[in-house]
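pasting for the record
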Amino acid sequence: MNKYTQAIKKELSQLTKFEDIECIKRRPLNATVLAHLEMSGDLVTDIRNAWMGNQVFDITGANNSIEHHTCYDNYVRDVIIRYCQNRAELKKELHIVDRMIDEV
């Protein structure tokens, strides 16, 4: 993975709330070209595993029981694209630490 893609992986792995991921998912697609992003199966799997490890998709159901939900590859890909297209704005809004600094 290139430095930009590594930074995106580290940034999205910081998310611990389903509401934050849905905030990204609801962003409209725009015409921003994502030339630096290397969308790979490994990237999608790593981000999905981070979210599952953070129990982002564990939702409290009826009677306070925890319901475990699965996060699918297409969902993760869509979130990655929308995050990258709105990265500067979303980092501020969701208090995501910029990981490009780590990759320089």
